[in-house]
């Protein structure tokens, strides 16, 4: 069985595609017997109880590219679960990832279910995508009678703190992909030749402006990151308010995501939020669905 990275830390689309190719390699011209012997059972997990955004897209990309037997474990209430079952994707399993102390009973129940999934489906690799599912799988790794590889993809820019990254966290790593801005310190405080840093940014060789540009004095800014507090959508609005009126009127802003309540908008936007220039859309669940 080939070695796979134990941890992937990433935030940009280019790295997501790269790791998807790594985790779901295409078979070369080999005999059917060899293919059967190399076939692995891979379990992807997603902790989001509703829409997972980029996590959902990432897991779907892995499923499409995989030449192995794949499973997905996620909450039954999640958009990922509903969309995969709607599309008749096989091996979609309902599993919650409780994280609070008050949910200890539910945590034990879900841990037992995860251990059952690992044993019944003979899971070789579990690929987690967040703190909650990574924690539950870490518990399962300690208790499971079946040895499996544990891949962790970090989708955000929050640093990993504490003794965990410097101790047990770093020792089993085969390869660490770290996607980060050159202006911030590494997310994981581990010095190792196993760490590959891929800088955040836009691939200007791929994303090029159209040859024909219709001149316009109006500029539309669009944010598709969502409206969770840590997404920083309010920084864009507050920056616009700092512009002179003669410049600011040229801009309109569209923010894709659930409309925050009025109290949140006023708090984050320092008392006002340019309602005449800012539009919040609903969550876009498909390419063709109106937002």
TrEMBL record:
One of its GO terms (molecular function) is glycosyltransferase activity. SUPFAM superfamilies: UDP-Glycosyltransferase/glycogen phosphorylase. Transmembrane segments: none annotated. Residues 57-205 form the Glycosyltransferase subfamily 4-like N-terminal domain. Coiled coil: none annotated. InterPro entries: Glyco_trans_4-like_N (IPR028098). This is Glycosyltransferase subfamily 4-like N-terminal domain-containing protein. It comes from Budvicia aquatica. The lineage of its organism: Bacteria, Pseudomonadati, Pseudomonadota, Gammaproteobacteria, Enterobacterales.
């Amino acid at each position: 069985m080939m070695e796979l990275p134990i941890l992937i830390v990433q935030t940009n689309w280019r790295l997501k595609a790269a790791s998807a190719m790594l985790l779901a390699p295409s078979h070369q011209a080999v005999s059917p017997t060899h293919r059967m012997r190399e076939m692995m059972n891979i379990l992807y997990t997603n902790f989001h109880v509703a829409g997972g955004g980029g996590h959902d897209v990432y897991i779907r990309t892995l499923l499409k590219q995989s030449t192995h037997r794949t499973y997905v474990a996620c909450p039954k209430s999640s958009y990922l679960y509903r969309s995969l079952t709607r599309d008749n994707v096989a091996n979609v399993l309902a599993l919650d990832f409780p994280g609070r102390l008050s949910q200890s009973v539910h945590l034990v129940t879900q841990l037992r279910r995860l251990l059952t999934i690992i044993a019944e489906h003979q899971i070789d690799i579990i690929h987690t995508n967040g703190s909650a599912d990574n924690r539950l799988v870490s518990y399962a790794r300690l208790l499971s009678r079946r040895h499996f590889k544990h891949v962790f993809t970090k989708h955000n820019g929050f640093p990993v703190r504490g003794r965990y990254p410097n101790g047990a966290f770093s020792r089993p790593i085969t390869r660490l992909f770290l996607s980060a801005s050159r202006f911030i310190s590494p997310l994981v405080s581990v010095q190792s030749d196993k760490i590959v840093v891929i800088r955040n940014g836009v691939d200007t060789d791929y994303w090029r402006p159209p040859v024909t540009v219709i001149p316009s004095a109006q500029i539309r800014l669009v944010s598709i990151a969502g409206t969770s507090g840590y997404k920083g959508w309010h920084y864009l609005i507050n920056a616009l308010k700092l512009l002179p009126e003669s410049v600011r009127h040229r801009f309109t802003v569209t923010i894709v995501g659930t409309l925050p309540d009025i109290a949140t908008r006023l708090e984050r936007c320092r008392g006002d939020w340019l309602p005449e220039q800012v539009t919040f859309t609903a969550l876009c669940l498909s390419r063709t669905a109106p937002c």
